[in-house]
């Protein structure tokens, strides 16, 4: 985050008056982390909640496209942006937005990403590794978006991110350091590829594990 952007957010937070009950609980110090919010399945309706609890959240514009639609007066152009955010410790989100101008579309997409955060369960799921650290996914998991399928496979420590370049930032922002992957479908479509990878990470909290597998998984938060 640049100094200018950080200062701008700090000033905005000073003037923040929460509109939701969740925002009031955060500002009053009764809720102290995004993990607490996400584990309780509460819906974040104010991006300021994320700025307040995670001021160092990383952001990356993963896709920007100029689109056009035909109207009576001719073609009307706009920009569609997709922004990825994450804290590199098990929280990640993606947001999309449109605007007539490029940068407003990106800013709107970033705000939307903050309203669509997910919690990622990390662990040491490879039977070749017994470190019990949060460096990989806890088990094999598959996500999808349109025709794209992404399967994430636990890898031992030191392997690195053996995934497509377009979804490496997704793994990095989620705090995944070692993982193998398999893909199917039209992975040249960046947005679908990224969303399929995020869907796979989302499923890490939905799959039930056996007691033996649970011992291989470390907690989302320490």
TrEMBL record:
Coiled coil: none annotated. One of its GO terms (molecular function) is structural constituent of ribosome. The lineage of its organism: Archaea, Candidatus Iainarchaeota, Candidatus Iainarchaeia, Candidatus Iainarchaeales, Candidatus Iainarchaeaceae. It comes from the Archaea. This is Small ribosomal subunit protein uS5. Belongs to the universal ribosomal protein uS5 family. GO terms for cellular component: cytosolic small ribosomal subunit. Pfam families: Ribosomal_S5, Ribosomal_S5_C. Residues 57-120 form the S5 DRBM domain. GO terms for biological process: translation. Keywords: Ribonucleoprotein, Ribosomal protein, RNA-binding, rRNA-binding. SUPFAM superfamilies: dsRNA-binding domain-like, Ribosomal protein S5 domain 2-like. Part of the 30S ribosomal subunit. Contacts protein S4. InterPro entries: Ribosomal_Su5_D2-typ_SF, Ribosomal_uS5, Ribosomal_uS5_arc, Ribosomal_uS5_C, Ribosomal_uS5_euk/arc, Ribosomal_uS5_N, Ribsml_uS5_D2-typ_fold_subgr.
